Amino acid sequence: MSTFDGSQPAATAQPGDLERLLVTAADLADAGLDDFTVLASPSSDEDPPPMTGPTPELTALLNRAFSDKAAREVRTSFMNADSSLVVDEGVSERVAGAAVAWMADMRQVYAQCPAWTMNIGDQEITVHVVDPADDPSEPLKVEQRFGDEALMRTMLAGPVGQQAQITTLLVRGGDRALELTFRCLAGEPGGPEAARLAIAMSKFLELAPAKFLNRPLV
User: Fold this and answer.
1) Alpha-carbon distance 162 to 158, whole Å?
2) pLDDT tens readout for residues 171-188
3) Closest Cα partner for 165 from 87, 111, 102?
4) DSSP secondary structure code for residue 124 in this structure
5) Using an 8 Å Cβ cutoff, are 78 and 38 in contact?
6) 56, CA 20 to 30 Å: which among 18, 45, 110, 146?
């Protein structure tokens, strides 16, 4: 349940309506994220690669959930100065009821698929979902703060020692959805690099959902 009061955004988007809900360079500066710049084109425009789950049913669920197409969507991406963290943001609007169904699919993915594989070219990459109880970003607490519903999980992709860390927050407000994804190398827990990235992530986790929901930062 949302900690914000007031009405949700209108269900029918007007031209430019979704774009204004994306984080901009000016927002980054105001939030103390001066180390980040807006990329010329979103880094997450490509369709996801084929995925294979533990069963044929879960394979179908994975590919349906991650390949879901919204009626209308806008995207942007950000990168910090040393390229150690890339942040992808997407705001979408779906037909009535489709956002609820998509969020339900994503919940089912994380509940029933602790691991799956992705096929990229001739490579097969294993993805592991971090148990929320072991995730220092405390996703279950974050989920309680935003929108009609929210879902946040961290995944580790690739071989040990070369793993990419992918943390995604999904926020639904009516028929609209926010996707906020952080991508970096999985570092040593508790190290200075991990702490620096955690601070940047926490600022984005305040900024992007608040702007998407048209609410002040709290």
Assistant:
1) 6
2) 999 999 999 999 998 877
3) 87
4) E
5) yes
6) 45
